[in-house]
Design a protein that fits this description.
There is one protein chain. The radius of gyration is 18 Å and the shape is elongated. It starts with 5 loop residues before the first helix and ends with a helix. It has a single domain (32-156), classed as TT1751-like domain (TATA-Binding Protein, 2-Layer Sandwich). It is an alpha+beta fold. The chain has helices spanning 6-24, 44-57, 68-74, 91-100, 135-156; strands spanning 35-40, 61-66, 83-89, 110-117, 120-126. The protein has a 5-stranded antiparallel β-sheet with strand order 1-5-4-3-2. 15% of the residues are buried. A hairpin with a 2-residue loop joins strand 4 (110-117) and strand 5. This is DUF302 domain-containing protein. It comes from Methyloprofundus sedimenti. Residues 72-125 form the DUF302 domain.
Amino acid sequence: MILFSSKIYFHLLLCISVLMIIGCAQTPKGEFVPFYQAETDKPYADVLAELEIAISEQNFRITGHSRVGKVIRDRGTKNFPDYDTVQFCNLTHAKTLLLMSPHAIRFMPCNIVTYQYNGKTIVRTHLIPTDTDNPKLNVFAEQMNKMLKEIVDFAVE
């Protein structure tokens, strides 16, 4: 039996509650945020290294890397699986996107999650919706989504 201190239990409960609230939050009417996902048998560390290369090759800069699984292991939960989120951005693309629609800030920065599940390494990213009322934004989103898919595919190949 694993015993948690009341402080750890409180923080765990708080995190779960926040995730549930976020998960239940409604998207704006008519908006569906699509995603793209691929999986591989490659070692997890290799996938992360390839992900960083792919992001750089698409002329993005990594703005954050959260090693959630590692931090949980470091805090005492042995054998906790790897979970990582990598955030990245290209300021030229960001400026273009925001000039087309200030509301598009909710899609920034680009984010890719990586985790292991059933013996596979999963790599997943949200895509930018391509069915807005703004034709220029839709074309831009299609171009960005192509890059995001190429990043994911490179990491898992």
